[in-house]
Amino acid sequence: MKKLLAIAVIITAFAASEAFAQTGVSGTGTVSMTVATGGTVTAVTPLAFGVQTQGATDISVAATSTSAGAFTLTGGNATHAYTVTWTITSLSQGGSNPISWTPSVIGGNTNVQGSATSISSGSTVTSDAGGNAWLWVGGTIASIPSSAPTGSYSGQVTLSLAY
Predict the structure, then answer these.
(1) Rg value, the chain, Cα
(2) How open is the CA angle 92-97-99, to the nearest 5 degrees?
(3) Domain that residue 107 falls in
(4) Cα separation of 132 and 129, whole Å?
(5) Please, which of 21, 38, 77, 92 could form a disulfide with 98 given CB 3.0 to 4.6 Å?
(6) pLDDT over 70, % of the chain
(7) For the whole prediction, is pTM greater than 0.70?
């Protein structure tokens, strides 16, 4: 009898463990992603402050002006928001006699400068259905030192679009 009871307990325990091991449910879900393309940013026209005099102050070129620099984004993702940032270098004569300036940037998803909106560094511009966007750069020079040597000055602005 004891032997029978022991065998019954072992069989019950084994059957119970098998029942727990086989109980469960599962489900399958879909995984997806989109691979973004950065496209190409191209400087189309340079920003031109024109001819200025020593000691001049508050020299501005509006980003809506025909003297503004122009950039295009081509080959990007359709209607994608790109974060725009920029870096600049001072205007100088081959690295000497630097004159600082502050950029102003406008942009949008049409090639119409007048319909572009103001963009601050770190904000976004959205490309059009073809993956294109347009940006224009103006700027302000607070003052040109009266001791600034005459001659040509140049600098750079680099626009970066993160996707």
Answers:
(1) 32
(2) 60
(3) 40-162
(4) 7
(5) 92
(6) 85
(7) yes
